[in-house]
Amino acid sequence: MNGLGFQVAAPSALADKKKSAAIKDYLERLRRAQEWVYDHPEEWAKVWAKDTGLPYEAALAAVKRSNGTRVPVAVDQAAVDSEQRIADTFTELKLIPRKVTFADFVDPRFNGDLPPSTTPARTYPSSEK
Fold first, then answer.
1. Do the beta carbons of residue 61 and residue 48 sit within 8 Å?
2. 36-90, pLDDT tens digit by residue?
3. Among 2, 41, 48, 91, which lies 20 to 30 A Cα-Cα from 66?
């Protein structure tokens, strides 16, 4: 696995101007939220712990290892190639019923100025956050 995650939208929503604009807005809000989580891990861990019932320390550790380290990246050729290798492996192992062409499910129009998909996850300095 490559650690990438994706947002999914119906082709009909992507083809609709108003829905496409709403998707773009959602993605921008999600990016800002991810930045906020990285900059405020303690605050996010408090909210997450309260909502899930997790102990604060466990929530904070999870934020510092996963939620806070996420970096929004472009859906570029490297991402498509990596996902294709994964899909091909799943096909070979008969975990999915037929070959999938991952590029058929990609819409890079929302990439904007996002960094390449090969950008590593962020880490928190050991003395901070």
1. no
2. 999 999 999 999 999 999 999 999 999 998 877 888 999 999 999 999 999 999 9
3. 91
